[in-house]
Design a protein that fits this description.
The complex is a heterodimer of chains A (254) and B (365). With 254 residues, chain A is α/β, with parallel strands linked by helices. Chain A has one domain: Rossmann fold, CATH 3.40.50.970. Chain A has 9 helices and 9 strands. In chain A, strands 2-1-3-4-8-7-9 form a 7-stranded mixed β-sheet, sandwiched between helices. In chain A, strand 7, helix 7 and strand 8 form a beta-alpha-beta unit. Chain A is globular and about 50 Å long. With 365 residues, chain B is an alpha/beta fold. Chain B folds into 2 domains: 180 residues, Thiamin diphosphate (ThDP)-binding fold, Pyr/PP domains (Rossmann fold); 113 residues, 3-Layer(aba) Sandwich (Rossmann fold), CATH 3.40.50.920. Chain B is built from 14 helices and 15 strands. In chain B, helix 11 links the parallel strand 11 and strand 12. The N and C termini of chain B lie far apart (55 Å). Classes of the chains: A alpha/beta (254), B alpha/beta (365). Chains A and B meet through strand 1, strand 2, helix 2 and helix 4 of A and helix 4, helix 5 and strand 9 of B.
């Protein structure tokens, strides 16, 4: 493809230097790409790319390590916060963050997440909540809304059969080791900007030794939800956001 | 010359001292009987104030082994310890550590199983330690101490082997070796490796940050979705295990030169069986003892040579229902009799009891 020349005054947004130039495996319409972009920007702007270690999860985000030009460790399913603890404890001066989905963090990894938070580990957690297991083909997650159809709740999530969805971010706010919990989204430009500021704050907290920070990003899974990207965004606004309300849940100033 | 520093200590306490003195960077663990003294001793010694070693009590064995995985992924010398049920919980992590080729040390102070079992000594985890102990084709390097002194010595040996082969190493002890007190000469204090040293030593693989010079990034993972590429990784692992089998086998032989019969035993069993050899010799029975020190790689060759030389029978003596005996049989390969004698559930045999078993199962049969 021929290089298109863009005049500097017309440049609105450029690929972050740390975002690698390879084809992403994510489905069209997926928000992982946008969130990767934000992390790459924050790491670059904070000048941390030589001192940053990311921990990727099991789930669609497992290949996060293919896209951001930093050192990565791929964790077993749900164990990212324990892996991050191990790294941060032997490298307290480094930036250590995890990137996890709702199945990874709030189902199989609940124990590791809560205890890393309770200990006040100086790490940042980026938590992608799309209320479904994406990589394994759209099964119910702990975050799946009541009535929502998935591969393992084909008639809709019924609380008598499947229990209720829960908000791990709200639960984490009660822990003394936690300094910052926020719920964001990236479905509109204004939300993208807010989400970036939140990620930046979480990274700054980790570097300043303020404790455990978590940025939940309410996201879509248009493949799993069986909706077009546009319809998935609309469905998220109408169904997810009333339950998973956006905004800061905890922000300890000092 | 400075006199050796002889101490009287429990095996578990020695593990803690040896780790600090080796220059270990971090210990992550969870309490379980009969090995809780390892972390208790570390917490009492406060190595973070002397050498800078991190000691952290995790919320579970699952978390401990994944903390080990994370810290090991940065090239640091890190360890955990546990006992049988806890090691089962770590199985997932062991598989990931082996798959990602991360060096580290795991100490298993075995107790009787299955399930919650007992808190007394057992050797029931031989299969788990030597045949994988997790999913997929992999091996741990397994060292079996039979004295408190070896609890000290094998910490350094296990770390050195783990780093030489980029593979997790296990010290497979048991409740007896962990709990008993014995004389021990502790290793001298070594310096911990600096971040700069590790960044250079492990620059091809450790994920400790790309550094000021922005070296090419490192990704620690055991994932490869392309079958062709995953097979290549498996073949590389198998080549490593072959190199271990060729170069790192360790064992001890007592009175095997003229032996008509040979006991194969490791760890605390080997201590008991060395007394059986004395009893047998006093009765005129030419008995020898072969003590595998590395359980993986297993000392196949010396057993094969003894069978080839005309040993009339082997008795594998283990505190289990017969696990290592399978490896002894494979080495002997039908040349002569191989039987097993064991006790379970935390029970121990006496030297005389083993001698009776040898007569009944091998000599008089």
């Amino acid at each position: 493809m021929a290089e298109v020349e863009i005049k500097q005054e017309n440049l609105v947004h450029a690929r972050p230097k740390l975002l690698r130039d390879n084809l992403m495996h994510y489905c069209p319409g997926c928000s992982h790409g946008t969130i990767h972009n934000l992390i790459a920007e924050v790491v670059e702007e904070m000048g941390l790319d030589g001192d940053c270690i990311g921990i990727s999860p099991v789930g669609c985000g497992v290949f996060a390590y293919n896209y951001i030009e930093i050192d990565w460790v791929e964790a077993a399913h749900g164990r990212a916060c324990a892996v991050a603890t191990g790294i941060k404890r032997v490298h307290p001066e480094k930036m250590v963050f995890t990137y996890q989905g709702d199945g990874d963090l709030s189902a199989i990894g609940t124990c590791e997440t809560i205890h890393a938070a309770a200990r006040g580990e100086n790490i940042a957690v980026i938590y992608i909540n799309n209320a479904i297991y994406g990589m394994t083909g759209g099964q119910m997650a702990p975050t799946t809304l009541l009535g929502m159809k998935t591969a393992t709740t084909p008639y809709g999530r019924d609380p008598r059969l499947n229990g209720y969805p829960y908000k791990i971010s709200d639960m984490l706010c009660h822990l003394d080791g936690v300094c910052y919990v926020t719920r964001q989204s990236v479905h509109k430009p204004a939300n993208v900007r807010k989400c970036k500021a939140a990620i930046r704050k979480a990274f700054e907290n980790a570097m300043a030794g303020k404790g455990f920070s978590l940025v939940e990003v309410v996201s879509t899974c248009n493949s799993g939800w069986k909706l077009s990207p546009v319809a998935a965004n609309k469905w998220m606004e109408e169904n997810m956001l009333p339950f998973y309300q956006l905004g800061d849940l905890k922000d300890v100033k000092e | 010359m400075k006199k050796d520093e002889v101490k009287l200590m429990k095996g578990n306490e020695v593990i803690a001292h040896a780790a600090i003195r080796y220059g270990c960077d971090a210990y992550f663990g969870y309490p379980i009987t009969p090995q809780s003294e390892v972390m208790e001793t570390l917490m009492e010694l406060k190595p973070w104030e002397s050498t800078g070693m991190v000691v952290l009590q995790a919320e579970s064995e699952v978390a401990s082994i994944n903390m080990v995985y994370g810290a090991a992924a940065t090239g640091k010398r890190v360890m955990t310890s546990s006992s049988s049920p806890g090691i089962s919980l770590m199985s997932e992590g062991l598989s990931y550590l082996a798959g990602a080729e991360l060096p580290c040390l795991i100490v298993n102070c075995q107790r009787g199983g299955p399930g919650l079992g007992t808190i007394q000594p057992s050797q029931g985890d031989y299969f788990q330690a030597c045949k994988g102990g997790g999913h997929g084709d992999f091996h741990l390097i397994v060292l079996a101490p039979s004295s408190v002194q070896e609890m000290n010595d094998f910490v350094a040996d296990a770390f050195d082997l783990a780093f030489k082969y980029r593979n997790p190493a296990m010290i497979l002890a048991d409740g007896a070796i962990g709990q008993m007190m014995e004389k021990v000469v502790l290793a001298p204090q070594r310096d911990r490796k600096t971040n700069e040293y590790i960044a250079e030593e492990c620059k091809d693989w450790a994920a400790c940050g790309r550094g000021e010079e922005r070296r090419p990034r490192n990704v620690v993972t055991s994932l490869e979705l392309q079958s062709e590429a995953m097979e290549v990784i498996n073949k590389r692992l198998q080549a490593k295990y072959k190199a271990l089998e060729e170069n790192e086998v360790r064992y001890e032989m007592i009175d095997c030169d003229d032996a008509d019969y040979v006991i194969v035993a490791f760890g605390s069993s080997a201590r008991i069986c060395s007394a059986t050899v004395e009893l047998a010799r006093a009765e005129g029975i030419k008995l020898g003892l072969l003590r595998p020190i590395t359980l993986y790689p297993f000392p196949k060759k010396p057993i094969e040579e003894l069978a080839e030389r005309g040993v009339k029978g082997f008795l594998s003596v283990e505190l289990n229902a017969g696990q290592m005996v399978e490896d002894v049989r494979l080495a002997v390969n039908g040349r002569t009799k191989v039987e097993h004698y064991g006790r379970q559930g935390g029970m121990m045999y006496s030297p005389g009891e083993v001698l009776e078993a040898l007569k009944e199962k091998i000599i008089n049969k």
